[in-house]
Amino acid sequence: MAGDAEVIDNYAVLGNPVSHSLSPRIHRIFAEQTGESLSYRAIELPEDGFRDGLLALKREGLRGANVTVPFKRQAWESCDHLSDRASAAGAVNTLSFDEDGAISGDNTDGVGLVRDLTGNLDLSLHKQKILILGAGGAVRGVLGPLLDLQPEEITIANRSLDKAHQLALDFSARGDIRVQAYADLGDEKFDLIINATAAGLQKKLPPIDAQILCQTTVCYDMLYSTDESTTFVDWAQGLGVRAHDGLGMLVEQAAESFYIWRKARP
Ligand code: NDP
User: Fold this and answer.
1) What CA–CA distance (Å, rounded) separates 91 from 72?
2) DSSP 6
3) With 80 as the cut, is the pLDDT of residue 2 above it?
4) Is the dihedral angle over the CA atoms 208, 151, 265, 77 positive or is it negative?
5) Residue 200: beta bridge partners?
6) Which long-range contacts (CB under 8 A, 24 or more apart) does 198-204 make?
7) How far is the CA of 203 from the centre of ligand 1 (A)?
8) Residue 133: band (very low, low, confident or very high) from pLDDT cuts 50, 70, 90
9) What's the alpha-carbon Rg for the chain, to the nearest Å?
10) Residue 127 region, left (φ>0) first, then alpha (ψ -120 to 50), else beta?
11) Tens digits of per-residue pLDDT, 193-246?
């Protein structure tokens, strides 16, 4: 019958810049896999206009959104309801616009990382020594889920030590976190080293030394690249160490967002 057009729910990833984002491709594949009818696009919002942009998109009928750099904190501030993991993370990467007009926020970065490490890469983190490089928003999102796996210890190294100390304090109820300056890492060895710095975006390495690696160390770069390996993965593999980039984390965090919105698991 004329006029019976199929209703498609609209979703988006909001960021600045965002044109490089793989999320539209990933969610399109998820929609095909699950038979869900939806559209998903990348929307760049002005750096000083996140909240206004978000409310305008909500009025236009957007059902939900992923949020990427630099808006995860502002997304958290814009929510009427927060999941436990978003509250703990202090950052939101998944927004849902509820029927009653409320905005709900969740953070799927941590579950995305843990599923990639333990599911796709088959690593056990129980009783393992983990070194995290960086103390930004992404680390805040993944610390809770990592601590839940009861590693032997988590050490954070960051240029600005105050940020690392603040994280250790904020998560102290969930587990002990050691803070170390890069220069003091010495030759201590770790089972897993997660690069959560933004250094790779400029094709740089954080200030680390090969001494922190041993043959059994696994290196994981949260940054991902679709064409060539990331600088950190290159560095580790060049030293003969197993290393992976963050594409699996990206796909897994997207799958969790998709589940929150559609109650269907890709
Ligand atoms: P933030 O901007 O919040 O934090 C950046 C961190 O990188 C800070 O700890 C900063 O240190 C450090 N840093 C920046 N440049 C350098 C450098 N040249 N040398 C050493 N440290 C540096 O970013 P996010 O936490 O949001 O993101 C971090 C990384 O994780 C990014 O590469 C991002 O793409 C990736 N990511 C990947 C995801 C995925 O799904 N795969 C999801 C989320 C993030 P300081 O505090 O001293 O300035």
Assistant:
1) 5
2) P
3) no
4) negative
5) none
6) 198/134, 198/136, 198/223, 199/231, 199/232, 200/230, 200/231, 200/232, 203/231, 204/231
7) 12
8) very high
9) 19
10) left
11) 999 999 998 999 999 999 999 999 999 999 998 889 999 999 999 999 999 999
Digit-coded pLDDT (tens) for 94-128: 999 999 999 999 999 999 999 999 999 999 999 99
**DSSP notation for 190-255:** -SEEEE-SSGGGGT---S--GGG--TT-EEEES---SSS--HHHHHHHHTT-EEE-THHHHHHHHH
Cβ atoms of 205 and 213 closer than 8 Å: no
Q: Which two tokens stand for residue 210?
A: 């090969």
pTM > 0.85 = yes
Read off the amino acid at residue 186: G
In the Cβ-directed half-sphere of 263, how many Cα atoms lie within 13 Å?
Answer: 0
Ligand 1 lined by 136 (C-beta under 6 Å): yes
Model confidence at 3: pLDDT above 60: no
Averaged pLDDT of the chain: 95
107 lines ligand 1 (CB under 6 A): no
70: nearest Cα among 42, 93, 103, 95: 93
Assess contact for 219 and 193: CB atoms under 8 A. yes
Res 4 pLDDT > 60: no
For ligand 1, the distance from its centroid to the CA atom of residue 198, given in whole angstroms, is 3
The secondary structure element, H or E, covering residue 25 is helix 23-34
Task: Report whether residue 145 contacts ligand 1, using a CB cutoff of 6 Å.
Answer: no
Cβ neighbours for 163, distance < 8 A, ≥ 6 positions apart: 135, 136
